[in-house]
Amino acid sequence: MKNSPRAHDAAATQSASTRLRLRITAAAETAVRSGHPWVFSDSILDSNRAGQTGELAVIYDRKDRFLAVGLFDPGSPIRVRILHAGKPQTIDRAWWQARLEQSLARRRDLFDAQTTGYRLIHDESDGWPGLVLDRYDTTLVLKLYTAAWLPRLDDMLALLKENAPGERVVLRLSRNIQSVAEKQFQQCDGKVIFSQRAEPEFGAPIIFQESGLRFEADVLRGQKTGFFLDQRENRREVETLARGRRVLNAFSFSGGFSVYAARGGAAAVTDLDISAHALAAVQRNFALNKNYPGVAACHHDTAQGDAFEWLAANAAKFDLVVLDPPSLAKRAVEREGALRAYERLATLGLERLAREGILVAGSCSAHVPAEEFFETVRRAAAKSGRKFAELKTLRHPPDHPAGFKEAEYLKVIYLKFAT
Q1: Do strands 206-210 and 191-195 pair parallel, antiparallel, or not at all (unpaired)?
Q2: Are residues 113 and 24 in the same domain?
Q3: Scanning 63, 158, 288, 297, which has the fewest C-beta atoms within 10 Å of its C-beta?
Q4: Is this structure's pTM higher than 0.90?
Q5: In terms of domains, do 400 and 309 share one?
Q6: Dihedral angle at the C-alpha atoms of 43, 177, 147, 410, nearest 10 degrees?
Q7: Residues 160-188: pLDDT tens digits?
C-alpha cells in the first residue's frame, strides 16, 4: 500500500527513530510467537512514542530482535492486530497484493454458479485482522471492526478493484468505530464507497443465490454484512431433514433455514422472530423462491414475539425445531449466564418438539466454547427423559475459517428424539 512503512531496518521507509517501536510482556511475546493475532493494551511495556491510528507498529522481543508487525489502534483494548510474525518482511503494496490473492485463492473452488453469496476475507483467520469482505452477487461488502483500517481504505479499495471486481463496494462499520470513522475519516456505516455507475438512490436489498435459492441481503443496514452467510452448511443440512415435517425456525431473521426447509419438502414452516422487519424479509424470501415446488406448496406462517416467551406460552408441536439465537455472551463475564440461557432455550424447544422430532441448536457466542455448549444441549435433552440420538455437530464453513481460539464462535448440534 502507498506510504506504508516497512517492517525491517534495511529498507525502511521510516527511520528507526520515527517508526513506532513496542515491547510487550513475556506472556504476550509467547502468545505472538504461537500465532495469536492480538496484543492488548495492558501487554505493552514500552513504546518510543504515541502511536497513530492505522500505522504499522513493530514489536521487538526482550533481546531487541524483531518479533512481529501489526496495525496499531490507540482507541481499542486490542492495541495491535498482528499482520506478520517471524522473520522481518517488507509490508508494501506487493505484500498486500500477495495476501489478498491468497485469501481469494482459498475460495476459488468452493462454490459454483448456484452460490453467489460467500465470504472472501475472514479477518484474522485470513491474515486481515479486524476486516471481513463478503460477496453478494456483484456487490462487495467490506466490514471493519477496527479503526486501524480507515487510513488504508483507499489502498484497500484499489486492491479490490483490481483483484475482486464488482459493481459496487459498500462499507460497513462496527458500532465501536463509527464515531471515529465519521469525525476523523469522514466515513459512515452503509456508505457506497465505489460504484461502476451513478446510483443516487441505491438502497434496495441485493438479491443473491445460495445453493440455487434466491435471498435478499440488506447490505446497507442489515445485521453483519446483510445476511448470515456462515450458516450455509447448516441450512443445507436442515433441507435434507425437513421432508414431511412441521418446522419451527426460532430467531428466524430473514428465514434462511425456513426457505431451505420448504424446498426440502417441509409440510409447514413457522418463522418466529421479535422483529417485524425480519419477518417481512422472510415473506419476501419465500416469494423469491416460489419457482420451487416445495416452497410453493409449503404452508408458511410467521409469529412475532420474544422466542423464550413464545416457546413457553405456545402449545403447538413441531417435528423439527431450529434454535439459532443471536450471541448470548458478548463478553467473557457473560459466559455462565449464556450457558444457563442456552439450556433454558433447549428445554423450551424440546417442549415444542413432537415424537420422533429433531432439535437443531446453534450458538454464535465466541465466549462459549463448543464442547460446553454441546454438553449444555445434551444435558437439557437428558433431563427431558426422552430417548435421543446425536446426529452430528457442525462448526465453521470453509469460507469462515477459525484460525485461533477466539475466532471459534459457530457451533450447531443435531439431536433426533425417538419419543
Answers
A1: unpaired
A2: no
A3: 63
A4: yes
A5: yes
A6: 70
A7: 999 998 999 999 999 999 999 999 999 99
